[in-house]
Amino acid sequence: MLSANGGALLGDIRATTVSGRGFTPEELVDNTLDRIIFISTSADPVLRQQAEAFRKSIRSVLLNYGNQCVRSNHTTLANRLRDVGHSDLIKLLEN
Amino acid sequence: MAISVTTAMPTSFKVEILKAVHNFTASTGNTFKLALMKATAAGSGTYGAATTSYDTLVSNTDELANGSGYTTGGNTLTSVTPVADGTTAVCDFDNTTWSAATFTTCGGIIYNDTAAGNPACAVLSFGGDQQVSSGDFQVQFPAAAAATAIIRIA
After folding, report:
1. What Rg, from alpha-carbon coordinates, does chain B have?
2. Which pLDDT belongs to residue A5?
3. Does some domain include residue A76?
4. Residue ranges of chain A with pLDDT lower than 70?
5. What is the DSSP letter of B42?
6. Residue A86 C-alpha, separation from nearest chain B C-alpha, in angstroms
7. Residue B130 counted as domain residue
């Protein structure tokens, strides 16, 4: 122990997998939120309520930009496919 | 024999902290990586507080094979410069993802790729085999707070 009530400690990680696809923006945002705003279980109820409202607001912003990233990347991919003569494959990006 | 892995901070790492072996400063510090183990039944080593180095994983041939979304040595972690949260010093890494991956893994070792001997900083158990097939595998690190951070000195 480094002191009477301290020490070098290790936190808990979480492993997540998805098969047959990549993570959706919703999944990535939810995985990221815990890192952006952590609400202690012992937090004051009023502060906790404010923190949870902030968390909800941040989730909405992140999700919006996450979806925009996907759409922008699809635009880039569609142009690359068109440039190499595979316009028929573009519709695969629409779903 | 099967792989036995227990989440632990290596005892050697605690000594190395006091010897200034590791520098977690973002960008200008050392390079830290997370290497993944094979499926439990596919290996034979024992990993936990007594593990001292990534090299043990290699010598036991317990690391995932190169390919299928995994590169030997593991993913390079993006370190966040350590800070104090109250009276606790905390260290943090960004979440890391293996994309287009097909493998099964039961745990991993965070190690210092810059320091001589690839010393281990943390041994992580995934609580059993985690299987991914043509998908993504992500390790999420906890919030960088006094009660939760991946590596902290209280």
Report:
1. 15
2. 66
3. yes
4. 1-5, 95
5. G
6. 22
7. yes
Cβ within 8 Å, pair A9-B153: yes
Residue A52: domain span: 25-93
Total tally of structural domains belonging to chain B: 1
Query: Which tens digits make up the pLDDT trace of B64-116?
Result: 999 999 999 999 999 999 999 999 999 999 999 999 999 999 999 999 999 99
B121: containing domain: 4-82+100-141
Q: Bridge partners of B8?
A: B123
Instruction: Tell me how far apart the alpha carbons of residues B33 and A31 are, in angstroms, rounded to a whole number.
Output: 20
* pLDDT digits 0-9 by tens, A70-92: 999 999 999 999 999 999 999 88
CB B62 within 8 A of CB B108: no
ipTM: 0.84
Cβ pair A7:B153 closer than 8 A: yes
Whether residue B122 lies inside any domain: the answer is yes
The verdict on residue B88 lying in a domain is no
State if pTM tops 0.90: no
Contact of A4 with chain B, judged by CB distance below 8 Å, is answered with: no
Per-residue exposure over A12-30, b if at least 16 CB sit within 10 Å of its own CB, e if not: ebebbbbeeeebebeebbb
Domain count, chain A: 1
Does residue A5 fall inside a structural domain? Answer: no
Task: Tell me whether residue A60 is in a domain.
Answer: yes
Coil vs helix vs strand at B143: coil
Could you tell me the two tokens for B19? 């010897």
- A69 domain residue, yes or no: yes
Judge whether B134 and B100 are in contact, CB under 8 Å: yes
